[in-house]
């Protein structure tokens, strides 16, 4: 009898396992979902419409793209709901433009590219956005859900490629997943430390049922049982793909999680700053992130009266001629400071990994990202207080807590005096004659003097741009765009495109090296077609000078560093812009040429100033903090 009971138990367990297996299989195949949710086979709607609805609900105004059949439904649907589609000449430019929009608008920048090579072309730009902490959504096409891994056109493992670069990656498997997945991705992009997110859309999740169903038909199915199984599987997959696709779903933004300093942490910092005699603030790009308006941060800094070194997107935070904005002699100031506040600034190569900080100084570090907050603190520096939180809102809280207290005025005054002395020396170098062509420092000073007060400066290059960082002065917050810590060349065309769309009333200046120009000069076609007139100043010395400057004396060869004095101005003409060649014979009328360029951009022309420059001995450090 016991053996019969054991057999019954085993059979009962086996039956239970079988039932569970069948239920799980029914769940995975979508059979259970289809019992309660209808597949509307006659509907003309497609998945691209769901993407457009969510983007519109999140305030997205632009989608940057290089068109491909995999993503056409998204582009068409976005255009229909009023989202402007801006097509570029390279996928990397599309991502760079979305990055610029994210930085300047406080929303998520969006780029959409086709499968395979379309996506691989974006890798550098996505990595740059990751390191620059820009909230960005990359939409990618993909092979159909049943064809992935089977040798379909442009089919590669895209998810593995982007998982190391993005905060969130997802592959859409059914149309009903689109709305919740896009909502989640947009929230993640902005939460914590902002960054890029990636969603791939297999082509059969984007086109309407009547087109997709044609691709699922098997012309010569196997005979017998196997044929019936294959036909059933394909039919079920198709029905599950569209099941519940057009049910009403919430498309509104999800809450965004932003870390904040605690009241106790702020109070401890108030006590430290109130006792400091020689405090210094190093402000990084992260301090400009939402939700705190940059004007509130600027007022907080002015109320504190503490001398500030500004880097990255925070350049221009204090205007052109603030008494507390210090531009020169940072290393000396840090040695003398008794308190240093790192507000979104990281102790990486730009601060010599923390070695420039005085070990006797009190150090307050504020950063949303724990890894960046403590980078190299195990070797070269130690924070007195480390706060994982938003730098902008922290500065506002700190200023409120120190109301009535100001940094001793003789400290910023002494640093400002050093600024004036060094800048006078640099200005004198600009007046020197170079052996050939124009002095690049003089060219940059002329541009700085003549550019409009609302100008946005885009930095894309090495040697020439490094000089520009110490000469050109952004007039206000959010008016300087450089790649950030990754030091990427080629951002110029995309950054300028995004900037001009966000601020159409502003002059947008691209400062190019002649080497970096090669990456995005084709975007003059984009500027022309999309009526986004910008002014590009190209420092043309026919050389990768930043490399040559060290390679030649160390290794004795200029191999691979030499370029030519190419007629880039003619290239701009060919793309529908207007180019000017400027050499030494034009020195006396340089200011007039710049004014003419400004006038022509107001009339809708994108301008390229091809400036032939000579060599100087002016050298400064990194352009980004």
> DSSP strand (E) fraction?
5-15%
CATH class wording of the largest domain: Alpha Beta
The global form is: globular
Count of spatially separate domains? 3
Mean pLDDT: 92
Strand order of the largest sheet: 2-1-3-4-6-5
User: Roughly what percent helix?
Assistant: 40-55%
CATH topology of the largest domain: Rossmann fold
Structure classification: alpha/beta
Low-confidence stretches: 621-625
Radius of gyration: 29 Å
Biggest sheet details: 6 strands, parallel
What is the CATH-assigned architecture of the largest domain? 3-Layer(aba) Sandwich
The number of helical elements comes to 25
Total strand segments: 17
Terminal-residue CA separation: 81 Å
Within CATH, the superfamily of the largest domain carries the name Thiamin diphosphate (ThDP)-binding fold, Pyr/PP domains
Structure notes:
This protein is an alpha/beta fold and 625 residues long. It folds into three domains: 47-242, 3-Layer(aba) Sandwich (Rossmann fold); 263-414, Rossmann fold (3-Layer(aba) Sandwich); 430-612, Thiamin diphosphate (ThDP)-binding fold, Pyr/PP domains (Rossmann fold), CATH 3.40.50. It is 43% helix and 14% strand. It contains 25 helices and 17 strands. The strands form three sheets. It has a six-stranded parallel sheet, sandwiched between helices. The chain has a six-stranded parallel sheet with strand order 13-12-14-15-17-16, with helices on both faces. Helix 13 crosses helix 16, helix 17 crosses helix 18 and helix 18 (440-450) packs across helix 19 (463-471). It is globular. It starts with a helix and ends in a 13-residue tail after the last strand. The model is unreliable at 621-625 (pLDDT under 50).
